[in-house]
Design goal:
Layout: H1 2-12, H2 20-27, H3 31-43, E1 47-50, E2 53-56, H4 58-69, H5 73-88, E3 91-98, E4 103-110, E5 125-127, H6 132-140, H7 143-152, H8 166-179, E6 182-185, E7 192-200, E8 206-215, H9 216-221, H10 223-237
Antiparallel strand pairs: 1-2, 3-4, 3-8, 4-5, 6-7, 7-8
C-alpha cells in the first residue's frame, strides 16, 4: 500500500508520465517487482499506459477528489494537537490568520493539565505581530497579505519585550523562515513563552501554525525537547516526516 501511494505521489509530480525505469528509480524498487503492480493499477483505472509512459488515471483523480471533499483542517489536526500536548504536558494550539483583524485565531487547542499553565481554548485570538504562531504565519504567508499588514498597522507594546518596529519585525520573519520556527518569550504576556512551527498543505501552501505555550521558566528548562517535538509534529501534520 505504501508503495502504491509513493507511486501516486511520484506521478503527480510528473504529469507527462514516467517510464518503468523512471518509476523504479523513483521508488528504489526493481523493475521486475513493479510490473504486476502497474498492470493491476492500469486494469483498475488508477493508471493509464500510453506507450512506455505511465500516467495517473481517472480512478486516481476520483479518489483524490473524494479525499479532498472530506478535508477539514481542525479534524485533520486534532490528533496532532492532542499528541503534542500529551508528549510535552503543555498547552498546544493550532492557529490560522484572520487578516481583516490582524490576529491569529486558534481553531484547535489542548490545555495543559498542570496547575500553572498557558491558558488557551479554541476560539481565542492574539495579534499576529506579538505571538509566536502569528509571526510564523507572517513569515510563510504571501507578501500580498503580509506587506499591507506591516505597512498599515500600528504595533502597540503589550509587554516591555514586545517588538513594535516594522523593520525589526521584517528581519524576524526572515530569520523564522531560515530556522523553520519561532520562539517568543514574554512578548504577548510577561510571564509566558511560546514556540511555533508551520503546517503546510499538499501544494506547499501554509495551512496554519502549530504552537506550544508554557510558563517562561518551564519553557526554558525544556526548550530543546519541546522544539524537537514541535518540529516533528509539524512535519508529520504536513506529510513531510520521514524519520523513524
Amino acid at each position: 500500500m505504501t508503495r502504491v501511494l509513493q507511486l501516486f505521489a511520484a506521478l503527480s509530480r510528473a504529469p507527462k508520465g514516467m517510464t518503468l525505469s523512471q518509476i523504479a528509480r523513483a521508488l528504489d524498487v526493481p523493475k521486475s517487482t513493479l510490473v504486476s503492480m502497474l498492470r493491476a493499477l492500469v486494469a483498475d483505472g488508477f493508471l493509464v499506459s500510453q506507450g512506455p509512459l505511465y500516467q495517473l488515471g481517472s480512478s486516481a483523480f476520483r479518489l483524490a477528489a473524494q479525499i479532498m471533499s472530506a478535508f477539514s483542517l481542525p479534524s485533520l489536526m486534532r490528533n496532532h494537537v492532542g499528541l503534542l500536548a500529551e508528549m510535552t504536558g503543555e498547552t498546544v494550539g493550532l492557529g490560522v490568520a484572520d487578516w481583516e483583524t490582524g490576529r491569529v485565531i486558534y481553531i484547535e487547542a489542548e490545555q495543559s493539565p498542570r496547575m500553572v499553565l498557558y491558558a488557551m481554548r479554541a476560539g481565542i485570538s492574539a495579534p499576529l505581530y506579538a505571538s509566536a504562531a502569528g509571526r510564523v504565519i507572517l513569515a510563510y504567508s504571501p507578501s500580498k497579505l503580509v506587506e499591507p499588514y506591516l505597512n498599515r498597522r500600528s504595533f502597540p507594546a503589550l509587554t516591555s519585550k514586545t517588538q513594535t518596529d516594522p523593520t525589526a519585525l521584517r528581519q524576524q520573519l526572515v530569520e523564522i523562515r531560515e530556522r523553520g520556527y519561532c520562539l517568543s518569550s514574554g512578548e504577548l504576556l510577561a510571564d509566558t513563552a511560546a514556540m511555533a512551527a508551520p503546517v503546510f498543505g499538499a501544494y506547499g501552501e501554509l495551512l496554519g501554525a502549530l504552537m506550544i505555550g508554557a510558563p517562561i521558566e518551564r519553557m526554558r528548562a525544556n526548550e530543546n525537547i519541546f522544539l524537537a517535538r514541535l518540529i516533528e509534529t509539524g512535519q508529520r501534520a504536513s506529510g513531510e516526516w520521514h524519520g523513524g
